[in-house]
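Checklist before submission:
- one chain only
- standard amino acids only
- sequence pasted in full

Submission:
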Amino acid sequence: MEIVFLNRSTCNKIRVIFILYHLEVRKVSVLRAIRKCYQFFVDKPIKKGIILKNRYEIVHVIGTGSYGIVYLCRDLHTNENKVVKQLRPSKRRKEVEMFEHEISILRMLNHKNIPVLFEAFLTNGSLFYVMSFIEGDNLEDQIFLIENTFNENEALLILSHLLELVDYLHKKDIYHQDLRIPNMLLKNKELYLIDFGLSKHMVVPFRSSPNNLDDILEMKLQDYYDLGEILLYLLYTTYSSKNKKALPWIEELSLEKETVFLLERLLQLKEPYSNTAEISTDLQAALKATEKGN
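Returned file contents:
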C-alpha cells in the first residue's frame, strides 16, 4: 500500500475548506432557528371571539397543519357553524400558490360528501377561505382514540363509499393524492372526504404527450394505492397479535380470497387497476363473499 504525504499548502487548503464548511452548516442552523422563532410569534392562532371580515367569529382552533390553521367559526349572518382555514402568515410564495390551488380545486367540486367552498378573502395580509362544517370524527380518531373496530364487511363498505368519491374526482380530472384516515370523516355511517391541499387537476388534452399520460397514470395509481392502505388500516382494527414476530398482512389477517385479491391489486402486488370500474367490480365481489360468510 502506497502512503501519500500532503504538503503544507495542500493541508492548509483542506483545513480552510473544513472550517468554511462548518461555518456554513452553523449559518444554516442559525437561520433555521431564527425562522422557527419568527414562525412561533407570527403564526399564533387567532384568539377566540375575534371576528373576521365582520362575519366569522372564531369559536376555537380545530387543528393546525404544516401550512394552515383551521378554525371553527360562527357565521354571524346565518348563525351557522363554518370552517375557516388560514394560511400561516409566515408562509412564502410556494405555500401561497398551494393555498390558492386548494381553493381552485374546491371551487370545481359539488358533492354532498365533500365540504362546500363559500368564499376566500384577504384580511390583514392573511389568506383565508370558508367552507361548510361537517360534524364528525375523522377515521384516525375513530381507530386510535375511540378504538372503534371494523369487521371485513364494514371495512369494505367504507371503501365502497370512498371509491365513489374517488371516482367522482377522477371524472373531473382531479386526483386527491393524500387519501389518508385523518382526511376522512365518518358521521352516521356516512363518509366525507376533506383536505384537498395536495390534490392535482390535470386535463388530458386531445393530443396529449406521453409524459402527460404517464403523470395521470401515476396519480391514479397513487390514489388506488392509498385506497388499499386505508382498507388495511380498517381491517387491522379487529386484529390481535398472537405472534411476537411481525408477519405480512396476508398471513396475519384472515380474509376472504376476494378481499385478498382486491388488496393485492390496489397495493400493486399484482396487476394494478386501470380504472375505478375495475375496482368496483372486485369490491362488489368481496362484499358478496363477506355477506355469505356472515
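Reviewer check: The mean pLDDT is 88.
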